[in-house]
Amino acid sequence: MNTNARRAAAATTAVLALAVLATACGGPGGDDDAKTVTLVTHDSFAASKSVLADFTEKTGYKVKVLRGGDAGAAVNQAVLNKDNPQGDVFFGVDNTLLSRPLGKGVFAPYRAKGLDKVPAGLQPDSGKHRVTPVDTGSVCVNYDRKWFADKKLDPPRTLADLTKPRYKNLLVTEDAANSSPGLAFVLATVAEYGEAGWQGYWKKLRANGVEVVDSWEQAYQDRFTGSRAGKGQGDKPLVVSYASSPPVEVLGDKHPPKQAPTGVAKGTCFQQTEYAGLLSGARNTKGGKALLDFLLSKRFQEDLPLQMFVDPVREDAKLPRLFTEYGETVDNPRTLAPKKIADNRERWIKTWTSLAVK
After folding, report:
1. Which pLDDT belongs to residue 11?
2. Cα–Cα distance between 247 and 259 in angstroms, integer?
3. What pLDDT was estimated at residue 37?
4. Is 263 helix (H, G, I), strand (E, B) or coil?
5. Helix, strand or coil for residue 303?
6. Taken in order 74, 181, 347, 351, is the CA torsion positive or negative?
7. CA–CA gap between residue 25 and residue 35 (Å, rounded)
8. What is the DSSP letter of 334?
9. Cα–Cα distances in Å, from 346 out to 8, 75, 94, 117, 353?
10. How many other C-beta atoms lie within 10 A of the C-beta of residue 335?
11. For residue 256, what pLDDT band results from cuts at 50, 70 and 90?
12. What's the confidence (pLDDT) of residue 27?
């Protein structure tokens, strides 16, 4: 998620840019270690300070957050460090990457409290409970409404539209080898065109000038014309982000517009769900389990939308008005079976790299 967060905000973008999240943590050794639970995650993790303070008040554990780059890079690090984990809980592995850490024994089983409030379809590992679903959303192409209006050009609606000459040199996406929204976008094309057609699609997209950058932050904040954080310095009016990204551009406005300044090409979307898990060999397993319970609590789940701009997985979590009013609902995003992703992901990434990057 993408990426979305999936995504993918100062009142808006400072949250998603994620300057260091200020969480209290004890020093090394002794009682401080016992009272600290370390969350290993990607650069797009965010939570309200008051929410994390509430966790500390209720459990006695302070949260230390370690970020490891984009989701793909963070997952790779967790796999490499599986015998000597950097923390107690990992958050941010999504359904496009899930089989990689599961196959390497990165996570220890734990059934988090609150799973009865999560749809069964979001629990692919429900029999073993090695990971806990935390958020969900759709990775989609976003567009800058003003840019297209000024050019008197209709924005694209589908994957096929993106290969048309009128959209040449307008799209930026993320590296599928390192970025979860970038990988989700590639999987959307596999789901749409199948094994026989997705490579041909990317050849067309490459010929049409798609730009590939390392991360969501670089794509959305630096290259996208519709990003408030970018202050209009980008030159790409199309970006791979999330269906829930438009509220980012409205958050904090004293006089919000009738519609968000960015829109979503709903015919380009792929479903993404993010998970958290107790790291095998964690030093503070008790604290880690308490943190997983908290990630599924209504308190945290209802904080998610305006922090990471994703949907909570709890069915009883309420969404904020800003999120429901300016976010986009995708009724039928593309999906692929987890086993199909697991069996083919590395091959697809290698092939995609040869087509789109090299």
Report:
1. 32
2. 9
3. 97
4. strand
5. coil
6. negative
7. 8
8. B
9. 23, 14, 15, 33, 11
10. 18
11. confident
12. 40
Residues 153 and 329: beta-carbon distance below 8 Å: no
Q: In which residue are the tokens 């309200």 written?
A: 48
Structure tokens given for 121: 């379809």
279, HSE (Cβ side, Cα atoms, 13 Å): 28
Please choose, from the candidates 272, 322, 295, 346, the residue with its C-alpha nearest in 3D space to the C-alpha of residue 52.
295
What Å distances lie between residue 210 and 273, 289, 325, 354, CA to CA?
26, 43, 31, 14
User: What does the pLDDT look like over 50-68, one tens digit per residue?
Assistant: 999 999 999 999 999 999 8
Amino acid identity, position 149: A
Structure tokens, 60: 């006695």
CA 243/CA 241 separation, integer angstroms: 7
Separation between Cα atoms, residue 9 and residue 262, nearest integer Å: 14
The residue type at 133: P
298-to-8, 45, 211, 248, 281 alpha-carbon distances in Å:
21, 18, 39, 22, 28
Structure tokens, 293: 């319970």
| Length of the chain, in residues | 358
Helical axes 180-207 vs 71-80, angle rounded to 10°: 120
Query: How do residues 187-232 score in pLDDT, each as one tens digit?
Result: 999 999 999 999 999 999 999 999 999 998 899 999 999 998 877 6
Q: Cα separation of 48 and 133, whole Å?
A: 20
The mean per-residue pLDDT over the stretch 1-24 comes to: 35
What is the residue whose two structure tokens read 């997985």?
Answer: 313
For 258, other C-beta atoms within 10 Å of its C-beta total: 6
Dump the DSSP string for 214-247.
S-HHIIIIIIBTT-TTTTT---BSEEEEETT-GG
Q: What is the DSSP string of 83-104?
A: TS-SSSEEEEEETTTTHHHHHT
- For residue 7, give the amino acid letter: R
In the block, tokens 């993010």 appear at 274
Rounded to the nearest integer, the mean pLDDT of the chain is 89
How does pLDDT run across 293-325, given as a tens digit for each residue? 999 999 999 999 989 989 999 999 999 988 889
